[in-house]
Amino acid sequence: MGCGYVGLVLGTCLSELGHEVVCVDAVKEKIESLRRGVIPIYEPGLQELVEKNAKAGRLSFSLDLGGAVEKSDVVFIAVGTPESVDGDADLRFVIQVAEEIGKNMNGYKVIVNKSTVPVGTGSLVRDTVTKFYAGEFDVVSNPEFLREGSAINDFMKPDRVVIGNGSVAAEKRMREIYAPLGAKMIFTDVKSAELIKYASNAFLATKISFINEIANVCDLVGADVKKVAEGMGLDARIGPAFLNAGVGYGGSCFPKDVKALAKTAEKAGYDFRILKGVEEVNRLQKTLAVRKLEKALGSLKGRRIGVLGLAFKPNTDDLREAPSLEVIRALKAKGALVSAMDPVAEEAAKKVLTGITYCESVYDCAQGADALLVLTEWNEFKEIDFRKVKALMNGRVIVDGRNLYSRKQVEAAGFEYYGVGQ
Ligand SMILES: NC(=O)c1ccc[n+]([C@@H]2O[C@H](COP(=O)([O-])OP(=O)(O)OC[C@H]3O[C@@H](n4cnc5c(N)ncnc54)[C@H](O)[C@@H]3O)[C@@H](O)[C@H]2O)c1
């Protein structure tokens, strides 16, 4: 249930494992497009895998949620759980789907919460289904840890599969489903499984905000955050992942999951102090790029800024909570003229970012620019021809919001370089 970044990858990969899968979504255009073999999102390798499994007859797409439930032994809920106005997870879509599942139950089934949901949602789904169906069924929590951009590999080779469950029958089914992966499986109760997901994402967000604060200190004392992170990351207790300083985290998960965990704690009577700091640091970090541009150029009024990268991270077209949205809006508010390019997120960006010039290449973006600003660390940006860029630009400033380049490299090419903590 739900053919988004998670549901579509989940369904496709389960069919690749040999299961018979029907992927359901409420959006007609999405299902029609999938039936024609057109994937509505950008995810490397997904197109080929969908084609292969659809052709083999193991993977199909449907608008008919009831029909899919009737035919299935296991029903995965993979709908969105966006942030609600008070910072909690909005469970509207989960409840809608649970109601529909309840209405169409025709025997024992395992209902699996794949969506990221607060502690207690397993019980909520159970109660919702029970309103419509008196027979036996189980509700399992099976949070997803895939990353957009490497989703298929992450699903097929997970660090762990977490199953929160209270029944022998459901455990047997979940073991059967995931057996072909040969992955480490953790079995626990539903509430602990629900919390594992939030705790993991909140910890990763904490690592990012922590290194961003270290970067800010580096800027003030003249240290190099890249080296500091390298030196920290080699400590096996710390590890190198998520120690890249930059203009803040975005995406469809970290911002909302940090808030939702703080809300869960608050509702339980606990003040989760660290998470408030993590969020505050991230909010400030998103303003860093504009502050650095102002430091370099003075007033931004009438200045042309070339922005490299719009997606919240490389290898995805996802713009949800991307720092680029906030940065570009702030630049426009200050009177700057913005040209931007992203290898895959341009179409998605056009729906939410207007009043800027979309460019085909880095060099189009550099044309006449007073400064270049890197907001997403796409591989394509690593190998740019600085000489060519310099000849096209009006100014000499590069603000590297993702520490993609080294100061030495950029300064040697004749630019003024502003990194994050470098
Ligand atoms: N995107 C990620 O990287 C990621 C990773 C791990 C976990 N998650 C979690 O997985 C969940 C889904 O995330 P996503 O990024 O795939 O969201 P998404 O917005 O891309 O997809 C959700 C899909 O559910 C569909 N939907 C909504 N209501 C429906 C209904 N009543 N019936 C059928 N379909 C319905 C929507 O049309 C949409 O296609 C969220 O809880 C998210 O936090 C996301």
CATH topology of the largest domain: Rossmann fold
Strand content: 5-15%
Structural class: alpha/beta
Assign the CATH class of the largest domain. Alpha Beta
Distance between the termini: 45 Å
Instruction: State the major sheet.
Output: 6 strands, parallel
Indicate the radius of gyration in whole angstroms: 23 Å
Strand tally, please?
A: 13
Average pLDDT rating: 97
Count of domain modules:
3
Q: By CATH's scheme, which homologous superfamily of the largest domain applies?
A: NAD(P)-binding Rossmann-like Domain
Bound molecules: nicotinamide-adenine-dinucleotide
Strand order, largest beta sheet: 10-9-8-11-12-13
CATH architecture of the largest domain: 3-Layer(aba) Sandwich
Helix segment tally: 19
Coarse shape: globular
Helix content: 40-55%
Enumerate the spans where pLDDT stays under 50 for 5 or more consecutive residues: none
